[in-house]
Each structure stands twice: as structure tokens, then as C-alpha cells.
Design goal:
Elements: E1 2-3, E2 16-17, H1 21-31, E3 41-42, E4 54-55, H2 59-67, E5 71-74, E6 80-81, H3 84-93, E7 102-105, H4 115-120
Length: 128
């Protein structure tokens, strides 16, 4: 999981989020948008981001690839792709890489959470 850095007034959210596009989109929609916001374009409010405006539908992909640093590495040739769709284009072009698969890495701090233990402790996450 990753710590959400979405900030409205210089105070990042801090909630722990799963680093998938679907989860990030759901989290932003639930916790960080006003119900009346129905614009096609929006600003990334991730702490320290200087992107002025992007399509609202692209914000979760932006957060995962830019701020969480998700990258796909081809297990055959080692080529790195910043997004899954770019990795898929790579394997379509490279016959030897089609069956190798990819490993996924993140360039930001990740915290592994034992959900059973966290629930047993009332939801508190303790660092070792």
C-alpha cells in the first residue's frame, strides 16, 4: 500500500491506498472530489505535483505511473515500461518476449500490511 499525498490546503491526505488505477480512482472520487465537480479537466493535487491540468479520466493513471512510480519490466529482455499498455505494445512487437511476462516495481515507499493483524488491532498499522 502507499500513503495518499493528495493535498488541498498543504496537508496531504495520509490514508493508505492500494496502488492500482481502479483503487486510486475510487479513493479520489470518494475522499477528494466535491459531489458537484463534473468537469472534464482537473488539476493533480498530489503533494509537490506541478501538472497544471489533465483529463479527469487520466488522473488515476497519472498518480500510479508518476507519483507511485509503477514500472513494468520485461522478464526476457529487461525493457522497462512506465505503463502496462506500453509494456503490452512491447511484447506485441517482440516475439521472444511474448511468453516471458513482466515484473512490476514501484519507485516509492511501499508498506506491506497484514490485514488480519491490522483488523485484530482495531485497524491500527504499526511499523516494525
Amino acid at each position: 500500500v502507499h500513503q495518499c499525498q493528495w493535498a488541498r490546503s498543504k496537508n496531504p491526505c495520509g490514508m493508505w491506498v492500494i496502488g492500482t488505477k481502479a483503487f486510486i480512482a475510487s479513493h479520489i472520487r470518494k475522499w477528494h472530489t466535491k459531489s458537484r465537480e463534473d468537469r472534464k479537466a482537473t488539476k493533480c493535487r498530489w503533494d509537490g505535483c506541478d501538472v497544471k491540468e489533465m483529463l479527469k479520466d487520466s488522473i488515476s493513471r497519472h498518480v500510479v505511473s508518476v507519483h507511485l512510480g509503477e514500472a513494468f519490466f520485461c522478464k526476457e529482455c529487461g525493457e522497462e515500461s512506465a505503463r502496462k499498455d506500453v509494456y503490452e505494445q512491447h511484447v506485441e512487437r517482440s516475439e521472444g518476449c511474448r511468453v516471458a511476462g513482466a515484473s512490476v516495481a514501484y519507485r516509492t515507499e511501499i508498506k506491506m500490511v497484514d490485514a488480519h493483524e491490522a483488523l485484530r488491532c482495531g485497524g491500527a498499522i504499526r511499523s516494525a
